[in-house]
Amino acid sequence: MAKVHRGKKTLSRQSRQYLFSAFVCTSLIGVYGFMIFRLGGELSINPLFHLLPVIWLMGIFYYCRRYRIFQAGARGENEILTYVRNLPNQYHVFSNFVIKEKRIHDEADFIIVGENGVFVVEGKNHLGKIVGTEDDIEWKQYKFGQKGKQHTKNMMNPIKQTNWHRLNIEGMLRQSGFRISVVPLLVFTNTAVQLEIASSEVFVLKGSKYVNDYILRYRPQRKLDKHMIKDIVALLEKKA
Predict the structure, then answer these.
(1) pLDDT digits (tens, 9 = 90+) for 119-146
(2) 54 C-beta neighbours (distance < 10 Å), count
């Protein structure tokens, strides 16, 4: 099995933080209701104070929505991790890798290092129909509700996002003397998604189970030797 280096800033952890924030807002509304019900006649309260439960209620909706979004992303990431951790033991898998270089702040879902190269994997756990090209600023996501009504949503172009990760990782490696072309890979983890996309720069997969096969079959112009792999892994561990 591959050696997995888990990042601290996982989507699962962030989703739990949003859930906790929603719980706090709910508790505050409960305390407010108790105070008004039990002590309302004895309290002298500024009218503006009654705006607080409205703000807390808005907070509940916001944090619950963010929780659902991050939970969906976390399921996708965990599914990819379930597969890539089964790569041969000479591979190293870095998850939720945060890149902080000068003015750059970026986070890659996965960086995978092995003898046939350095890979950056971006996972997306989307439903519906996704339409776009690598040159578009935004892509379209079409989803259908329970009554068959179509909903359209703009989403960040994941090809540009994956390429941004690639460029930042290559720059980080270059600063340490490694002139390596990083291989970008975009994975839609939900196999029910419909894709109408065009990409020549980034290979796109539908289904996490195909990630390992792509990586193992990839043939670079020049393989990395054991010493280079060790040095790259040491650098990533230091930067993590």
Answers:
(1) 999 999 988 999 999 999 999 999 877 6
(2) 10
The pTM of this model reads 0.83
Residues paired with 121 in a beta bridge: 110, 185
Question: Does residue 55 belong to any structural domain of this protein?
Answer: no
In a domain, 59, yes or no: no
Query: Is 28 inside any structural domain?
Result: no
- Could you tell me the strand order of the sheet in which 194-198 lies? 150-156, 138-144, 129-133, 194-198
Classify residue 210: in a domain, yes or no. yes
Cα separation of 120 and 118, whole Å? 7
For 187-214, the DSSP string reads EE--TT-EEEEE-SSSEEEESGGGHHHH
Using an 8 Å Cβ cutoff, are 201 and 160 in contact? no
CA dihedral 100, 105, 107, 111 (to 10 degrees): -40
Distance, in Å, from the CA atom of 81 to the CA atom of 209, rounded to the nearest integer, reads: 10
How many structural domains compose the chain? 1
Domain that holds residue 101: 3-7+73-239
